[in-house]
């Protein structure tokens, strides 16, 4: 149901999916279309798996963001406090179903003293990204406060359901609930994920003009989200640089790795300029992390030798590649049709002791590894004269924007027999006015849509001015 809603929002159709598949001789287009439609549920599941994986393994995601302020909570009765404490295990285990059983112990017509318990159950549902259960709990609350609204907003942010978030914001306004800094942050995050740079730029102006929120706002995260929105929109590197420089000049704030990482993403179509940003980060006294090297690698995704050189440069600095790094190498090698590159990346993974199919592996690595295996298996089938089945044929993932990992895109040319290696394009043409770009985190492919009509214009094919 969620995947269907997401597919409708993005305008996913069988024809568009089939046209984007990597075509080789003797492959039936109808089988490709079936596979592409079937990936909608898989993609949503992978994205949620990735989020839960990061929540469990990244620890404190706010490290490096100084001055975070905590919202004060209302007094809680002893009975309610005991119930809330019992929910801690449900929270850490993402056990939303177990949390819902707590509601059976609450009186039929609960007073406001039970609101903290409802909110704790709501938090379990939102953390596990279960919108239907969360809405049920939200509807039963004695009263709906800003904290409950913020939980729902952040859940729908992870689902990238901007329409639902806008509906909740309108409902807050109708109920006279003033948005907090956390409310604004949820909106910034979804604008970042969807590449809505104009909304992020306008939102930044609104926050700067509201003096009542200045002490509460985490400016480090707000500016980071705005830079990421520009990066994911495509061709907005100048705006990203403008926002970065404004933040760097803001008193009382600190530029950290994440801001440079986001700025690197804004220059993903220009390896030379991305290298300049990378060197600028070094001069600022920030030693590049593995994820920063990974982002720089992605900027060289159209040239396999240069991408590998960046990887080797990272290794010379005694840094150990992680799941993200190997996922991007596999994605690039696959989309460049570089079979030797796929085999080399697998060898590097084995040497680093990284098992892409282990329990707890990053879902993106697992998906890219299986897709690369499909490519090798398919090529082996061609070499032996056997016809591969449609289930082993590599197909693109449905277009969903991502969040926090580095991404890459394939060569846009998909017609005719696919060569085993593709030359890097001399330059990437700017998008026509009114079009935006984002990257599907699992397949690494870029997809595009018209800002005027995103529901019916989403496509894998890069639009060209004059052909629309």
Written description of the protein model:
This protein has helices at residues 2-10, 14-20, 29-57, 78-86, 88-92, 96-100, 115-127, 131-140, 146-158, 162-174, 181-194, 197-209, 219-233, 237-248, 257-266, 271-283, 290-299, 304-316, 323-335, 339-352, 363-384, 454-457; strands at residues 435-439, 446-450. The longest helix has 29 residues, at 29-57. It is globular and about 65 Å long. Helix 7 (115-127) runs antiparallel to helix 8 (131-140), helix 11 packs parallel to helix 13 (219-233) and helix 13 (219-233) runs parallel beside helix 15. Residues 1-40, 59-70 and 387-427 have low confidence and may be disordered. The chain has 22 helices and two strands. With 468 residues, the protein is mainly α. A hairpin with a 6-residue loop joins strand 1 (435-439) and strand 2. A two-stranded antiparallel sheet has the order 1-2.
Topology:
Blueprint: H1 2-10, H2 14-20, H3 29-57, H4 78-86, H5 88-92, H6 96-100, H7 115-127, H8 131-140, H9 146-158, H10 162-174, H11 181-194, H12 197-209, H13 219-233, H14 237-248, H15 257-266, H16 271-283, H17 290-299, H18 304-316, H19 323-335, H20 339-352, H21 363-384, E1 435-439, E2 446-450, H22 454-457
Antiparallel strand pairs: 1-2
Helix pairs in contact: 1-3, 2-3, 4-7, 7-8, 7-9, 8-9, 9-10, 9-11, 11-12, 11-13, 12-13, 13-14, 13-15, 14-15, 15-16, 15-17, 17-18, 17-19, 19-20, 19-21
């Amino acid at each position: 149901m969620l995947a269907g809603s997401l597919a409708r929002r993005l305008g996913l159709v069988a024809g568009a999916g089939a046209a984007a598949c990597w075509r080789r001789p003797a492959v039936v287009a109808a089988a490709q279309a079936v596979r592409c439609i079937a990936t909608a549920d898989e993609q949503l599941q992978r994205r949620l798996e990735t989020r839960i994986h990061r929540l469990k393994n990244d620890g404190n995601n706010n490290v490096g963001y100084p001055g975070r302020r905590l919202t004060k909570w209302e007094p809680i009765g002893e009975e309610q406090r005991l119930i809330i404490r019992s929910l801690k295990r449900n929270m850490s285990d993402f056990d939303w179903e177990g949390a819902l059983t707590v509601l059976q112990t609450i009186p039929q017509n609960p007073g406001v003293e039970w609101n903290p318990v409802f909110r704790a159950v709501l938090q379990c549902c939102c953390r596990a990204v279960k919108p239907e259960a969360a809405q049920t709990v939200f509807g039963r609350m004695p009263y709906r406060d800003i904290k409950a609204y913020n939980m729902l907003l952040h859940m729908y942010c992870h689902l990238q359901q901007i329409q639902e978030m806008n509906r909740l914001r309108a409902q807050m306004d109708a109920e006279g609930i003033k948005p907090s800094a956390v409310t604004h942050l949820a909106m910034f995050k979804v604008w970042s994920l969807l590449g809505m740079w104009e909304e992020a730029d306008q939102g930044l102006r609104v926050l700067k003009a509201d003096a009542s929120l200045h002490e509460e706002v985490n400016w480090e995260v707000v500016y980071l989200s705005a830079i990421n929105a520009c990066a994911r929109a495509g061709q907005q590197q100048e705006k990203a640089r403008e926002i970065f420089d404004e933040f760097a000049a803001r008193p009382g704030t600190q530029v950290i790795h994440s801001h440079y990482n986001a700025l690197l993403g804004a220059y993903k179509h220009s390896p030379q300029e991305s290298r300049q940003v990378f060197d600028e980060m070094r001069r600022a006294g920030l030693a590049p992390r593995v994820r920063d090297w990974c982002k720089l690698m992605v900027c060289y995704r159209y040239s396999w030798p240069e991408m590998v050189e960046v990887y080797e440069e990272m290794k010379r600095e005694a840094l150990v590649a992680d799941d993200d790094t190997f996922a991007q190498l596999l994605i690039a090698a696959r989309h460049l049709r570089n079979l030797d590159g796929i085999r080399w990346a697998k060898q590097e993974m084995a040497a680093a002791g990284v098992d892409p199919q282990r329990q707890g592996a990053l879902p993106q690595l697992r998906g890219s590894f299986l897709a690369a295996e499909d490519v090798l298996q398919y090529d082996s089938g061609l070499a032996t004269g056997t016809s591969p089945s449609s289930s082993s044929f590599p197909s693109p993932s449905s277009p969903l924007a991502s969040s926090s990992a580095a991404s890459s895109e394939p060569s846009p040319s998909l017609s005719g027999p696919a060569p085993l290696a593709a030359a890097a394009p001399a330059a990437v043409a700017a998008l026509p006015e009114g079009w935006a770009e984002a990257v599907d985190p699992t397949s690494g492919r870029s997809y595009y849509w018209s800002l005027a009509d995103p529901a019916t214009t989403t496509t894998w094919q890069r639009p060209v001015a004059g052909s629309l």
